[in-house]
Amino acid sequence: MSKPKHPRTLAETEAQAITRNIRVSPQKLNLVAGLIRNKPASQAVATLTFSKRRIAQQVKKTLESAIANAENNHQLDVDQLVVKTADVGKSIVMRRFHARGRGRSARVEKFFSHLKIVVAERAPEPEAKTEKKAA
Asked: Which of 98, 99, 121, 96 is nearest to 110 (CA)?
């Protein structure tokens, strides 16, 4: 006796990768995730490679995992992958204290985040021909 098979929540042309409990605030992670949304996968990897943000390398690993899942598990064409969504969510908050003057304390909150990247296979769009106007 085993559990019934869980139905697939994504379309047949999509694959995902999830990274949980990343030690960065969701606000900072969302700034990096915004750089890759709706971009071709190869362009998104290049953008993250040369980003100065510390967390960009972790996002790049997650994106590469989603690309590998699409290629190996779902037989999708890597050259036609586009980052469909890059969702950022809140995770746990570690609470610490910081000693202040006159015997008081202040709370220090260290935020964690979740990241979910979904890549989808899209057919290459035909480039629109621009007609040159005679001047």
From this structure: 96
Q: Which pLDDT value is given to residue 6?
A: 87
pLDDT in tens, 41-71: 999 999 999 999 999 999 999 999 999 999 9
Using the CB atoms, write b or e for 87-112: b if 16+ within 10 Å. ebeeeeeeeeeeeeeeeeeeeeeebb
3-state secondary structure string across the chain: CCCCCCCCCCCCCEEEEEEEEECCCHHHHHHHHHHHCCCEHHHHHHHHHCCCCCCHHHHHHHHHHHHHHHHHCCCCCHHHEEEEEEEEEEEEEEEEEEECHHHCEEEEEEEEEEEEEEEEECCCCCCCCCCCCCC
Structure tokens at 121: 């296979």
How far apart are the C-alpha atoms of 71 and 17, rounded to whole Å?
Answer: 12
- pTM equals 0.86
Q: How many residues does the chain have?
A: 135
Longest dimension (CA), the chain: 80
